């Protein structure tokens, strides 16, 4: 029980990290090119996370084995990931990312004229 207050679950901690990457992407204090890089990193990280980490949890979801640091089963981890991934703030920021990419595309086209 004490361990739960000391350790973060690896997957949930990873989602927090990727959310920070996304925050950099939407921060208008960052140059547009850097913001686009953060968008790319965010999406690449998310793709890997969903294919590899969530995929392996899904494969083990019927197991009752608990992860040793946070004492969560695969199914409990999946349930928490689903809640985090459906966060309306994250969804809104993803939409902001697409707007950032559109602005960069327009700026690039203008520079080439």
TrEMBL record:
InterPro entries xrefs: PP_kinase (IPR003414), PPK_N_dom (IPR025198), PPK_N_dom_sf (IPR036832)
Highest taxon, organism lineage: Bacteria
All residue ranges annotated as the Polyphosphate kinase N-terminal domain in the record: 7-84
MF (Gene Ontology): polyphosphate kinase activity
Cross-referenced Pfam families: PP_kinase_N
Cellular component per GO, a single term: polyphosphate kinase complex
GO-annotated biological processes: polyphosphate biosynthetic process
Classification via SUPFAM superfamilies: PPK N-terminal domain-like
Name of protein: Polyphosphate kinase N-terminal domain-containing protein
